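Quick one: co-fold with protoporphyrin IX containing FE.
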Amino acid sequence: NFPGPAPDSYLYGNVKYVPKGGFPAWLLARQREYGEVFQVWLLQTRVIVLSNADDVRFVTAEMNFPKSDGFVSGLSPFLGDGLLLIDNNRHKAQRRAIAARFNQDFMKDLHLHIEATMASFVQILDRAADEGSVLDFDAEITKFTLNVICRSAFGSNTDFLNREDELPSLVDAALRHSAKYLVHARYTWWLGKLAAPALFETAHKVHEFVLDMIRARRSESELARDERPVDLLDIFLSVPGMDNNYVASEVSTFLFAGHDTTSHTLAWLMYEVVQRQDIMHQIQKEVCETVVLKEGENGFPWPSFDQVRQLDYLNMVWKETLRKRPVTATGTYRVITDDVELPGTKTKLRKGTEVLIPPYLIHQNERYWYKPEAFDPLRWTRENSLGRHPYALQAFSSGPRNCIGQIFATHEALVVLAVLFARYDFKLACPPEDIMEFHSLTMRPRLRRQSKLQQHKGAQTYLPVRVFRKSSKA
Ligand code: HEM
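Sure, here it is.
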């Protein structure tokens, strides 16, 4: 007997009338109506939605209940047995082996990959500034982060920003097909490849691409290996007992989890900041006066690895974006494996119940956040953070299955933002209310009214901005 909306249809449950891309906002409206625990019907499955931080701690950290079959079967054609989907029994050893190598030295190499990719990105922004053209910030920054994760994975000199490479378009297509498949996989997984031929085909191509890279790497000489920086492929290949197929699944998982999450958060940050000149100036002040970026070899201001840690205000703006616009808005699906009582809301759940933990709802819960709808980086000062519930921020989830890439993402984001705000001013090229939250696998900004021509071409505009070179150099 959980509160919640009655299903609208036997087949579709509650999802029939959810506006396209609007699932997080729809859930939030239901939370306001029914409280911190309520039920929804996703097609014919009843899912209990949680947004109390003590309940979330219990499910994700204390009990670490497994991911639900519906979630796993929806993404497994692309991600296989990578960290995101692998069952809890095998997860522990796999995660420990990877986390041990995901260390400070690796982060320093990441810094180099970002610098190399930044050189191309700066060219694109310079061109937009000089021509006075409108740039789709979300689309461009997504290519950027995909390039960074590909370089971090393969260490190669791939430059996807200035070339039409096959891999990024394949990863992008696999993401789009996975988003569709996730919705109906609960009922069609048994059809195998017939259920989603396009997804299986693109996932297979990515897999083959990665297998080729693995074979080349396995035949690399020791000398060549010693002379180049470590990359993700080295890390995965060094995990004991893992064959090529496992390594390929892990690479796909990192390509999948490690780029559009970061890029859409960066796009949301840009969207918030361009509307708040006070915040933009404060960031520019910190970047240009406090940290004083040096002109790098590539001809743009570049922070050293250690300087990134001094960007305290920028870090607060980043955290506030993760709170207000959590890109993994609907969060993690878990299945309860024992009869339990949740500690926060005293809700009793039966073994076999599926639960959903949406960060979007927890981050708007007034129990934890004062004026949650406001974009206020200062809520992240040390004093203002005192006494906050440690599980109230769920952008990276929590417990043993939380995001392994959060330090990676934060470092990448702060570096990119430091360079962008040191070199450019930005303005939104449309009224702010024309931008909406659009959720498929992740939640990104999207222009509400797409032009007919673009729709015809199957293209979208996400976040149109104008770029201006700053008059004084950093
Ligand atoms: C702003 C950026 C990011 C956000 C908001 C984010 C968010 C998340 C969340 C919420 C989860 C848990 C998913 C679940 O429970 O089903 C997760 C898991 C994961 N993330 Fe991220 N992520 C980000 C960046 C990254 C990056 C850059 C990488 C890779 C370099 C990465 C790799 C992973 C992996 C491998 C997992 C599975 C971890 C496990 O189960 O052990 N993520 N991420």
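If it helps, The chain has a mean pLDDT of 91.
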